[in-house]
From TrEMBL:
<dbReference type="InterPro" id="IPR020846">
    <property type="entry name" value="MFS_dom"/>
</dbReference>
<keyword id="KW-1133">Transmembrane helix</keyword>
<dbReference type="InterPro" id="IPR024671">
    <property type="entry name" value="Atg22-like"/>
</dbReference>
<feature type="transmembrane region" description="Helical">
    <location>
        <begin position="191"/>
        <end position="213"/>
    </location>
</feature>
<dbReference type="GO" id="GO:0022857">
    <property type="term" value="F:transmembrane transporter activity"/>
</dbReference>
<feature type="transmembrane region" description="Helical">
    <location>
        <begin position="371"/>
        <end position="391"/>
    </location>
</feature>
<feature type="transmembrane region" description="Helical">
    <location>
        <begin position="313"/>
        <end position="330"/>
    </location>
</feature>
<protein>
    <submittedName>
        <fullName>Major facilitator superfamily MFS_1</fullName>
    </submittedName>
</protein>
<dbReference type="GO" id="GO:0012505">
    <property type="term" value="C:endomembrane system"/>
</dbReference>
<dbReference type="Pfam" id="PF11700">
    <property type="entry name" value="ATG22"/>
</dbReference>
<keyword id="KW-0812">Transmembrane</keyword>
<feature type="transmembrane region" description="Helical">
    <location>
        <begin position="96"/>
        <end position="113"/>
    </location>
</feature>
<feature type="transmembrane region" description="Helical">
    <location>
        <begin position="403"/>
        <end position="420"/>
    </location>
</feature>
<dbReference type="InterPro" id="IPR036259">
    <property type="entry name" value="MFS_trans_sf"/>
</dbReference>
<feature type="transmembrane region" description="Helical">
    <location>
        <begin position="283"/>
        <end position="304"/>
    </location>
</feature>
<feature type="transmembrane region" description="Helical">
    <location>
        <begin position="119"/>
        <end position="144"/>
    </location>
</feature>
<feature type="domain" description="Major facilitator superfamily (MFS) profile">
    <location>
        <begin position="24"/>
        <end position="426"/>
    </location>
</feature>
């Protein structure tokens, strides 16, 4: 299907509501804050700590880690749509965001006390922390239509992801003295201190959002439990979702390609360390490369999204992802894997930013948190249930992560085929 179906957003009227740069900055600063959790706990340090220390380096560590990621995403997929709808009904979006944020921060802090053979405790803490992190994104993303105009969704969304990857870089820099010693016995205490650092970073830099943004109280003719209202709204959304065919097509496409992205995020450090024998110092350099190019990808493709449209941008990034998977499979040197990381960083920031922009464009404003609950929850988090589990299972059974990485081609190619079916004209 041709890509010419996407049209430019018209210039807003003169009396369009002005948007506060302060609110936009506070909103992007939350991305700056929470990516400390993403890079340290989901992507880099804790996955290696879980497999090499908690699981003592056993091959089953891959399967256990993939299962932990899948379970946390499954829980998020179940609760996010209901709580998103409930926050729309109650007008208490910020309270929901605060609760999930504090759960993530608290459980991340408690990871300091984990050690060898504490598989159950280490798994439970990660699952709860990731539920808090991913669940909070439902309410965070739903603020996008309130802080900027439709014609700037791509740009502002890109700024948010760029700030997030910048936060990841700052977190890596701040934790560098703690993690540079790797997983040698004498350095394990410093590794555990890095979990406290990530939690503190998340807490401190998330404060401006809660001070700057205000919830809009909806006018309600009836007063019922917000959870009851949430379930009722979700049922209504499911029954009426056929009225939003483009939204359904996009969410289905997002389900597949986001699965591939989140699986790469979950296993990148383990793959580099175990398959290509990266030292811990080389892993630090690798992730600095990824985060730097992700910043560039978020900003540049954020502007491109507003010029050519979110759909076309997503198509471009998915083609890059397919290239990344093939290149990673045939790569057997560390130098080439740095190039893989460069392209992965560019496409990661760009595809996530463009997806959030397209979701905001297709979502009715009065159902923003509810629909973003399906975007981040039923489709976003549920998508991450399958990929990490399949990757971990194939890696464990075949004894090869290189074979497992080929499974990700299915998710990106199906996502590409489905996104081409999305029509975005007014």
């Amino acid at each position: 299907m041709p890509l010419s179906s996407e049209t430019a957003e018209p210039v807003p009227l003169q009396n369009e509501e002005p948007y506060s740069k302060r609110n936009i900055f506070a909103w992007t600063l939350f991305d700056f804050a929470n990516t400390s959790f993403s890079v340290m706990i989901v992507t880099f340090v804790y996955p290696l700590y879980f497999k090499n220390i908690i699981c003592a380096g056993h091959a089953i560590g891959d399967a256990l880690w993939g299962t932990n990621v899948s379970i946390s995403m499954l829980i998020g997929a179940v609760v996010a749509p209901v709580l998103g709808a409930a926050s729309d009904y109650s007008g208490r979006r910020k309270r929901f965001l605060l609760a999930f944020t504090l759960i993530s921060i608290l459980c991340t802090s408690l990871m300091f006390f984990t050690s060898a053979d504490m598989i159950l405790i280490g798994s439970v803490l990660f699952i709860l922390a990731n539920v808090g992190f991913e669940g909070g994104l439902v309410f965070y993303d739903a603020y996008l239509p309130e802080i900027t105009s439709k014609r700037s969704y791509g740009r502002v969304s890109g700024y948010g992801f760029a700030m997030g990857y910048l936060g990841a870089l700052v977190t890596l820099a701040a934790s560098f003295p703690l993690i540079i010693g790797g997983f040698e016995p004498e350095n394990l205490l410093n590794i555990r201190y890095s979990f406290l650092l990530a939690a503190g970073f998340f807490f401190f830099f998330s404060i401006p959002l809660f001070l700057a943004l205000r919830d809009k109280k909806p006018a309600r003719a009836e007063h019922i439990s917000f959870l009851k209202a949430g379930f009722r709204e979700v049922r209504a959304t499911l029954s009426n979702i056929r009225n939003y065919p483009n939204l359904v097509r996009f969410l289905t496409a997002f389900f597949f390609y986001n699965d591939g992205i989140l699986t790469i995020i979950a296993f990148a450090s383990i793959y580099a360390a175990n398959t290509l024998n990266f030292s811990f110092q080389e892993l630090v350099i690798f992730f600095i490369t990824v985060q730097t190019t992700a910043i560039l990808g978020s900003v540049i493709f954020g502007v491109i999204t507003d010029k050519i449209g979110a759909k076309r941008t997503i198509v471009i990034t998915l083609l890059i992802w397919i290239f990344v998977i093939l290149l990673a499979y045939f790569t057997d040197t560390k130098e080439m894997f740095y190039i893989v990381g460069l392209f992965a960083g560019i496409s990661m920031g760009a595809s996530q930013s463009a997806s959030r922009s397209l979701m905001a464009r297709l979502t009715p404003a009065e159902h923003s948190a509810e629909f973003f609950g399906f975007y981040d929850g039923s489709f976003g988090k549920a998508s991450a249930i399958v990929g990490p589990w399949i990757f971990g299972l194939i890696s464990t059974l075949a004894g090869s992560q290189r074979i497992a990485i080929l499974s990700l081609l299915l998710f990106f190619t199906v996502g590409l085929w489905l996104i081409l079916k999305v029509r975005t004209e007014k």
